[in-house]
Write a structure and sequence with these properties.
This protein is α/β, with parallel strands linked by helices. Helix content is 42%, strand content 22%. It has a seven-stranded mixed β-sheet, with helices on both faces. The radius of gyration is 17 Å and the shape is globular.
């Protein structure tokens, strides 16, 4: 992965068609995403009134829009390896009137400005795309971008795939994927996708990786089936 933490997938993993249909495909999970973004806003509401926030794997910009409307003086840097996703993101931010408060970077977290200049870093449903071997470097690079006392918020797919509880959780996860249009073939392949295509690790391992990257006392604040969220301070 060289020095670009987060480079687990090729930049063209999300094609233009996938990028343009991403929000519509995920709209069936609005109840989950709305609650997740609501809790992220609560976690971050004590940031300075003019906070600067880095959004890693910004995708179509959902987290920027959620935070920008709630905190009108915050500014944002969004980074994503998919040019197609950034095109959709840019258009969406412009349509909502917040693009002037944002800088979009094509690349990985390691391509963002070096130095501790961000009051918060937000990584929404990104870390499971980063290989297990590179996950520590991913979190350490994020840690290096935060000001002292800054807050990191991460949500990701996280579960112990070897646990006795996994088969039961898998059935629920199949229902989630079904809402997003999964085919019978893709549902049958889901265990292998979680383990081999994605890099899903247990909540215990995630907490340990965050501590190892220098974060203090990671707090788990969100769960929706296998989607879990943590926040931690530098």
């Amino acid at each position: 992965m060289s020095d670009k933490a987060g480079q687990a997938l090729t930049p063209d993993f999300f094609t233009r068609d996938m990028a343009e249909s991403y929000d519509a495909k995920n709209s069936k999970l609005a109840a989950i995403s709305e609650n997740m973004h609501f809790l992220v806003r609560l976690v971050l509401e004590d940031l300075p009134s003019r906070a600067r926030v880095l959004c890693v794997g910004v995708g179509t910009g959902a987290e920027i829009l959620s935070l920008a409307h709630a905190f009108p003086e915050w500014t944002f840097v969004g980074v994503d390896p998919s040019a197609a996703m950034l095109d959709v993101c840019r258009a969406r931010l412009e349509r909502d009137g917040v693009l002037q408060r944002c800088e979009l970077v094509h690349g990985y977290v390691g391509d963002t400005p070096e130095g501790a200049e961000f009051d918060a870093v937000v990584s929404i449903l990104v870390a499971h795309f980063v290989s297990r071997a590179d996950r520590s470097a991913f979190y350490r690079t994020i840690h290096s971008r935060l000001k002292a006392g800054g807050c990191f918020v991460s949500t990701e797919i996280s579960f112990d795939l070897d646990s006795a509880a996994f088969p039961g959780m898998l059935e629920n996860w199949k229902r989630v994927q079904g809402l997003m249009g999964a085919t019978p073939e893709s549902l049958r392949a889901l265990p292998e996708v979680l383990r081999d295509t994605l890099s899903v690790v247990s909540p215990e391992e995630t907490g340990g990786l965050l501590k190892g990257a220098g974060f203090n006392l990671p707090v788990e604040f969100f769960q929706a089936f296998m989607i879990r969220g943590w926040y931690a301070k530098k």
